[in-house]
C-alpha cells in the first residue's frame, strides 16, 4: 500500500514501487513491525524532503520518482541484514540493519537539504568550489541535515528495538562522509562504479560499522 501511494505521488517509478514493495516485504517478513517501521521512517522522510522546493533541484527523480535501481541500491543491504536477523537473531544483525538505514537516511537528507544551501558546495577531497550535485561535493547545511537524519534513525531505532543509539548514529554519520569520499574518488572513474554502486558501498559501511561497534 505504501508503494502504491508513493507511485501515485510520483515519489517512485512503477519499477521503483515494485522494488520498494519487495524490500519492504522482506524486511517485514524477517524483522517484523519495528524493523519495517524504521524503513518506513527513512522512506517517508526522504520522500518528503525530495519534494521540498523541488523546483530548485535538478535531479531526474525529483520529477519522475526514484527508479528500481535507486531503491535497491539504498535498500538491498538493509534487506540482507533483515534476513540475517530473521535467520539468526543477534544484536549485531539488528544494529547492522539500523546502521544501513541510518546511512541511507544521512546520505539522502544531506543531498536533499544540501541542494538548498545558499553557499556553493566544495569537493570533500580538495575543498574546491564545485557545481551543485557534483559527486563528492558537500555543504555545511547538507552535512548538518545528514547528521540530523542519522540521529533520527538512531533515536527511533533505540526506541523501537533493543539497539544502542551511539553505534547506529556514529555509523550513519561516518557512512555519509564515506559516500562523499567514494563519490569524489572513484565514481565515474571506474566504468562499473556509478551512484548506485556508491550507495551500496555507503549502506554496507553503515551496516558494518554499526554491527562492529555494538560488540
Can you characterise this structure?
The mean pLDDT is 91. 50% of the residues are buried. The chain has helices at 2-8, 14-51, 61-64, 68-87, 91-114, 140-160, 165-185, 195-213, and strands at 122-123, 137-138. The protein has a two-stranded antiparallel sheet with strand order 1-2. It has 8 helices and 2 strands; from the N terminus they run αααααββααα. The chain has one domain (2-54, 65-213). With 215 residues, it is mainly α.
Give the topology, please:
Elements: H1 2-8, H2 14-51, H3 61-64, H4 68-87, H5 91-114, E1 122-123, E2 137-138, H6 140-160, H7 165-185, H8 195-213
Antiparallel strand pairs: 1-2
Compose a concise summary of this entry.
By secondary structure, the chain is an all-alpha fold.
Radius of gyration: 16 Å
For this structure, the quaternary state is: single chain
Low-confidence stretches: none
Question: What is the helix content?
Answer: over 70%
Distance between the termini: 37 Å
Most strands sheet = 2 strands, antiparallel
Structural class: mainly alpha
How large a portion of the residues is in β-strands, by DSSP E? under 5%
- Summarize the helix and strand pattern as letters: HHHHHEEHHH
When the domains are counted, the total is: 1
- Total helical elements: 8
Strand order of the largest sheet: 1-2
* DSSP E strands, number: 2
Overall pLDDT confidence: 91
Shape: globular
Amino acid at each position: 500500500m505504501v508503494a502504491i501511494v508513493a507511485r501515485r505521488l510520483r515519489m517512485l517509478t512503477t519499477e521503483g514501487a515494485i522494488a520498494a514493495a519487495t524490500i519492504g516485504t522482506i524486511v517485514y517478513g524477517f524483522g517484523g513491525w519495528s524493523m519495517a517501521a524504521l524503513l518506513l521512517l527513512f522512506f517517508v522522510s526522504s520522500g518528503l524532503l525530495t519534494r521540498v522546493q523541488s523546483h530548485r533541484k535538478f535531479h531526474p527523480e525529483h520529477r519522475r520518482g526514484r527508479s528500481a535501481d535507486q531503491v535497491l541500491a539504498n535498500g538491498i543491504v538493509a534487506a540482507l541484514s533483515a534476513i540475517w536477523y530473521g535467520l539468526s537473531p543477534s544484536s549485531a544483525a539488528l544494529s547492522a540493519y539500523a546502521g544501513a538505514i541510518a546511512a541511507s537516511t544521512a546520505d539522502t537528507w544531506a543531498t536533499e537539504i544540501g541542494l538548498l544551501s545558499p553557499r556553493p558546495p566544495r569537493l570533500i577531497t580538495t575543498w574546491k568550489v564545485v557545481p551543485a550535485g557534483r559527486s563528492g561535493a558537500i555543504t555545511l547545511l547538507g552535512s548538518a541535515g545528514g547528521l540530523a537524519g542519522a540521529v533520527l534513525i538512531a533515536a527511533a531505532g533505540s526506541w523501537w528495538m533493543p539497539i544502542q543509539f551511539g553505534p547506529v548514529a556514529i555509523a550513519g554519520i561516518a557512512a555519509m562522509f564515506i559516500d562523499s569520499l567514494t563519490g569524489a574518488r572513484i565514481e565515474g572513474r571506474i566504468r562499473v562504479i556509478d551512484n548506485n554502486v556508491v550507495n551500496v558501498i555507503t549502506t554496507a559501511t553503515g551496516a558494518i560499522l554499526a554491527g562492529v561497534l555494538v560488540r
